[in-house]
Amino acid sequence: MKSFQLKRKEILILSGVGLCLLVWSALVLLPWNGETVRNEGGCEVREKTGVVNEPGMAGLIPSNSKVRFLYGWYNCHTPEKGDLVLYRYSEKMDPIVRVVRAVEGDRFKLSPDSNGHSWNLLINGEVVMAGDKPYFFGAATPPTLSLYVKSHNGILQPGELILLSSVPPGALDSGILGLRQIRDVMAKTELISR
Fold first, then answer.
1. Are 89 and 98 in contact (CB under 8 A)?
2. Phi then psi dihedrals of residue 43, to 5 deg
3. Considering the chain, what is the average pLDDT of its residues?
């Protein structure tokens, strides 16, 4: 009778352990909220789709466009100019999408616009464009970004980015907030449909 009870206890314990492992794998290994998980160059990338409606990104991302967010992408990939990124500028606010205009090692400076009432951004000697017109920061006084030109000798350091909206003079981007850090970038963003 004792041997039967021990076997029964062992079966219950093993069943409990198996159930715990099953629950753990469901919680840890399976994606949440429609996410898919894939291995991208040795990195685990969580892919989630969403809809973006940001007037500041007009021309690059039309209103109500479907996008793919690739969380973890920059754990194994270096940001490139032109990348669209989901970025957190404040812990208390929702993240926003911006475009990478300059990366580590790029030279940057500000130059007064020809009208004298705004500033243009130059990356590696070339004026950053917004469509067919120069991207500008609209004020007679230089934008916050000018402080970084002086303190960084005009060169982006490791982990630093210049993130801009697509419509000047921009909002919640490097013109107002200065250089951004790669650690503030949550995901690479890819346009799925307009």
1. no
2. -110, 145
3. 82
Handedness of CA 73, 74, 80, 83 (dihedral sign): positive
Helices (H), 29-178: 145-151, 174-177
Q: Over the stretch 158-169, which tens digit does the pLDDT of each residue have?
A: 999 999 998 888
Q: How many CB atoms lie within 10 A of CB 113?
A: 15
Extract the tokens encoding 188.
């690479």
Q: For residue 91, what are its two tokens?
A: 């812990």
Q: What DSSP assignment string belongs to 113-125?
A: -TTSSSEEEEETT
Q: pLDDT digit string (tens) for 88-119?
A: 988 888 899 999 999 999 999 999 988 778 99
Beta strand 160-164 pairing with 180-181: antiparallel
H-state helical runs in 29-156: 145-151
CA distance 146 to 178: 8
Give the pLDDT score at 22. Answer: 36
Top-confidence residue, 69 or 167: 69
The answer, yes or no, to whether the previous bond of 134 is cis (omega within 30 of 0) is: no
Three-state SS at 100: strand
